[in-house]
Amino acid sequence: SLALGSLGYSVFSTLYFMSIQGISVSLAALLLFTFPIFVNLGAHFFLKEKLKPLQVFSLILSTLGIGILVWGPLFVHSIRYVFYGLGAAIAYSIYVLVSGRYQKGVAPISSTLYVMTAAAVTLFIFHSPSISHMAHFSFDEWSLIFGLALICTVGPLTFFLTGLQKVSSSKASIVAMIEPVIAALAGWFVLHERLSNFQCVGAVFVVIALVINVKK
Hints:
- The chain is mainly α.
- It contains 10 helices and no strands.
- The chain has one domain (2-128, 138-215).
- The protein has helices at residues 2-19, 25-32, 35-45, 53-70, 79-102, 108-127, 139-164, 169-175, 179-190, 197-215.
- The chain starts with a helix and ends with a helix.
């Protein structure tokens, strides 16, 4: 778990945030959510899991749906930022594959504790953030920080690791593609952001792919 945090989670998150410095967020999200492709290929070639036709179809359909859902104005400052985005997807896919293979039987909350602690220490050492200004954070700012840490990071990771106890890495990775759909719906419901018909079609594609993935 410590290795997964320091060499997996921290690497993927660093590469992702490096990518959005030079490409549009929509493109970075699209690149990141190619990780189920790498997970399924890795499971097939390294873990000897058989790729079934319906599994391939659901993977293609969900990837297409994500592309439609997050599609927007694309900005690329340099091609290296695209590689950062792909690197984030590959790093995350390795993290998922290793977790699925070696975290079976490990309590998800314990695994999350070790992964997050190792990732936090690694990121702190690597990025060397200034902590002197933290003393001036307001209550609202600390609330946002703890909310992002607990609700948006620790919670989802614990649920994901719990899922890996029950299903394969390849199936779990496709199910995880519901995340952008939930984010889009939350933006529409909470922030009153507009969802185009085109984006709704993409969301439907993802949901159909998930149903196929669960039923197959």
